[in-house]
Design goal:
The chain is an alpha+beta fold and 365 residues long. 25% of the residues lie in helices and 29% in strands. The strands form two sheets. Strands 1, 2, 3, 4, 5, 6, 7, 8, 9 and 19 form a ten-stranded mixed beta sheet that branches. The protein is globular and about 65 Å long. The chain binds 2-OXO-4-methylpentanoic acid (COI).
């Protein structure tokens, strides 16, 4: 099979790619995260050699000694980003530099190695290039890119790992939620919190998502698709959902979203939407919003729209909020005007249908 060098990456084509007809069927109906592409990127880090062995090769299983540190102490961080098909048939990433920065912030919080931003971005670009045939061209489908890093030192004692495996895998995806862009129901958890001050809330580490699962299960038991976490101190201030940020839209046209106090993931989608809303002349407050205000403002009609946002979720309306002793509806269950407008502005830039005034689009082909 073809082998070549692209920048720092040794590139080896898979000898056994998924046959074209099968791949096309998967890409036409991808679901979310069901299928993986033919290749993966890997880079190794050791204290002696630094970053080395950068490679794009056939996707393969990982083989780990059972005492590899990640398996015991959860030294794992990841990113979520997408490659979008553009109208001219080429493709682009969206703000990969922002993901690279956040990845290194997560690495710092978990005492893991820093990866040069350019190496991170190149790994995602090269994987997207070699697996371009996997990028959906229909509807709002895209190729979800999942960079991640694990501590690979073989040791039972708990200390910062001295070696790491960084990898990127990719998966064609459609809508994250089963109902597409119709309203999502959320359960406000009183029993569980996601992150405490000084903890890992602002890091994108697997541990945060593992810790959210019992709350997610509780939400599912209540018939809701997502959980809403309140702050860990006063149990009053809305923080975020299990894997996405949240925005509130008021009848006077202002937007509000919880501030980045260290317990919330600084979403790239969140940041982009704040910018796009401000570009439109809207006022966006990054200020705390309490659960009792949320309930009161729905009842009074002051709050007119609520939406979740993230790379996977894009912009998804929230139409029902449930908690101990309350069950409230917001809107008519569909995409309300401000939510729809912001979603369109964002996705038009991502898919190359609109100008890119902030230089966010990173063409890979
Ligand atoms: C993303 O939106 O990219 C995430 O990582 C969230 C995850 C629950 C899919």
């Amino acid at each position: 099979m073809e082998k070549r060098q692209a920048g720092q990456f040794a590139i080896e084509q898979s000898a056994t790619p998924v046959p074209a007809a099968e791949r096309e069927a998967m890409v036409a109906n991808p679901g979310f995260g069901k299928y993986l592409t033919d290749h993966m990127a890997t880079i190794r880090y050791s204290a002696e050699k630094g970053w080395h062995d950068a490679r794009i090769g056939p996707r393969e299983n990982l083989s780990l000694n059972p005492s590899t540190m990640v398996l015991h102490y959860a030294g794992e961080i990841f990113e979520g980003m997408k490659t979008y098909r553009h109208p001219d048939g080429g493709a682009a990433l969206f703000r990969p530099d922002a993901n690279a920065r956040r990845f290194n912030n997560s690495a710092a919080r978990l005492a893991m190695a820093q990866i040069p931003e350019e190496l991170f971005v190149e790994s995602v670009r090269e994987l997207a290039r070699i697996d371009q045939a996997w990028i959906p061209s229909e509807g709002d489908g895209s190729l979800y890119m999942r960079p991640f890093m694990i501590g690979t030192e073989v040791a039972i004692g708990n200390h910062p790992s001295d070696s790491f495996l960084y990898a990127v895998i990719a998966s064609p995806v459609g809508s994250y939620f089963k109902g597409g862009v119709s309203g999502v129901s959320v359960w406000v958890s009183e029993d569980f919190t996601r992150a405490a001050p000084g903890g890992t809330g602002a890091a994108k580490c697997g541990g945060n998502y593992a810790a959210a699962l019992a709350a997610q299960a509780e939400a599912a038991k209540q018939g809701c698709e997502q959980v809403v976490f309140l702050d860990a101190v006063e149990r009053r201030w809305i923080e975020e959902l299990a894997g996405m940020n949240v925005f509130f839209v008021f009848e006077d046209g202002t937007l509000q979203t919880p501030p980045l106090t260290g317990t919330i993931l600084p979403g790239v989608t969140r940041d982009s939407l704040i910018q796009l809303a401000r570009d439109k002349g809207m006022t966006v407050h990054e200020t705390p919003y309490a659960i009792d205000e949320w309930r009161r403002d729905i009842a009074s009609g002051k709050l007119v729209e609520v939406f979740a946002c993230g790379t996977a979720a894009v912009v998804a309306p929230i139409s029902q909020i449930k908690g101990q002793g309350f069950d409230l509806k917001i809107g008519d269950g569909g995409m309300a005007p401000v939510t729809a407008d912001l979603r369109k502005s964002l996705t038009d830039i991502q898919f190359g249908r609109a100008d890119d005034p902030h230089g966010w689009v990173d063409r890979i082909s």
